[in-house]
């Protein structure tokens, strides 16, 4: 059976990468390239998707997708979750910059549909998360700082991935990031136990993250670098393929990968 995917945010950098990856993936196809309902792109042809035009969400749902993949902006989340819940369609969400209210909305939707949220859909970052938790647990005295670099169009900072790695580092020590985060580093001395973030925004960097664990005289750096957006797209497709077979609930990449 071919899995029919509706791509939300289809005209964006990630939407285009997902459409491209779908065209190279057997057993999956893009059935709808969805953009926001007021978008001037509605009705225009979709690059790399012969005989398809951009549509709004309601039109996209008429294609009866098996799964929705959403890489948009936080203000689109409530509408997208509402539509997926009403139509009972599993959903993979990669949008970053979500606040606490949005996280609760994800939990509520996941009571009714299978939902996988990942601030980073690469397999490498799912593994890095585990390594960071292990390292922070093993080196309880080390100062931890997270350095991330992204392209100049990125809106949120620190990146969703940096926060995810910060959570993993804090969790490794039995803490919550909210209690130990120093946020983006500015003036002032470092406090013990703090986890600070440094953010670079430049040109076309797709995504780089380093977790630094420093003790006096030695340091470990755990680094992940992406040089092609297709890495996120392929991870999202792998997640979608797995999610359509799961019962309702909230899942992470680590659940899908069996880590
Ligand atoms: P982009 O700006 O290129 O594309 C965003 C898309 O969302 C556009 O097509 C835009 O029209 C659409 N959109 C915006 N508001 C909308 C709304 N209200 N309703 C419907 N559609 C709406 O951005 P991008 O680089 O493709 O990134 C998209 C999101 O994915 C960002 O949050 C980014 O941080 C995140 N991202 C996640 C991962 C991951 O692995 N999870 C990787 C890369 C990017």
Give your account of this protein's structure.
By secondary structure, this protein is α/β, with parallel strands linked by helices. Helix content is 35%, strand content 25%. Helix 5 (123-138) packs parallel to helix 6 (160-172). The protein is elongated, with a radius of gyration of 19 Å. The relative contact order is 0.16. Bound molecules: nicotinamide-adenine-dinucleotide (NAD). Nicotinamide-adenine-dinucleotide (NAD) binds at residues 9, 11-15, 35-36, 71-73, 75-76, 94-97, 118-121, 232.
The general outline is elongated
Number of helical runs?
9
Small-molecule components bound: nicotinamide-adenine-dinucleotide
Task: Give a quick account of the main beta sheet: strands, pairing sense, barrel closure.
Answer: 7 strands, parallel
Topology:
Blueprint lengths: L2 E6 L4 H11 L4 E7 L19 E2 L1 H5 L5 E4 L6 H11 L3 E3 L6 H11 L3 E4 L5 H16 L4 E8 L9 H13 L4 H4 E4 L10 E7 L5 E9 L2 E9 L3 H14 L5 E3 L1 H5 L2
Parallel strand pairs: 1-2, 1-4, 2-3, 4-5, 5-6, 6-12, 7-9, 8-9
Antiparallel strand pairs: 7-10, 10-11
Helix pairs in contact: 1-8, 3-4, 5-6
The structure holds nicotinamide-adenine-dinucleotide.
What is this structure, in a nutshell?
The protein is an alpha/beta fold and 259 residues long. The protein has helices at 13-23, 57-61, 77-87, 100-110, 123-138, 160-172, 177-180, 230-243, 253-257; strands spanning 3-8, 28-34, 54-55, 67-70, 91-93, 114-117, 143-150, 181-184, 195-201, 207-215, 218-226, 249-251.
């Amino acid at each position: 059976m071919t899995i029919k995917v509706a791509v939300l945010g289809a005209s964006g950098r990630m939407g285009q990468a997902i459409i491209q990856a779908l065209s190279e993936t057997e057993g999956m196809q893009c059935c709808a390239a969805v953009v926001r309902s007021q978008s001037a792109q509605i009705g225009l042809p979709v690059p790399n998707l012969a005989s398809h035009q951009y549509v709004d969400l309601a039109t996209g749902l008429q294609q009866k997708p098996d799964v929705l993949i959403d890489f948009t902006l936080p203000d689109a989340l409530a509408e997208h979750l509402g539509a997926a819940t009403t139509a009972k369609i599993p959903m993979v969400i990669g949008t970053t910059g979500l606040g606490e209210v949005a996280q609760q909305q994800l939990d509520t939707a996941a009571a009714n549909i299978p939902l996988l949220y990942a601030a980073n859909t690469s397999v490498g970052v799912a593994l890095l998360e585990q390594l960071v938790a292990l390292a922070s647990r093993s080196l309880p005295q080390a100062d931890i700082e997270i350095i991330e670099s992204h392209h100049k169009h990125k809106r949120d900072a620190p990146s969703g991935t940096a926060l995810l790695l910060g959570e993993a580092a804090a969790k490794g020590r039995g803490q919550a990031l909210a209690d130990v985060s120093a946020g983006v580093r500015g003036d002032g001395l470092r406090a013990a136990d703090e986890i600070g973030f440094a953010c670079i925004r430049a040109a076309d960097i797709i995504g780089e993250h380093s977790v630094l664990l420093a003790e006096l005289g030695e340091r470990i750096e755990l680094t992940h670098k992406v040089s092609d957006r297709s890495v996120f797209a392929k991870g999202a497709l792998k997640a979608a393929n797995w999610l359509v077979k799961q019962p309702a609930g909230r899942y992470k990449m680590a659940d899908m990968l069996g880590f």
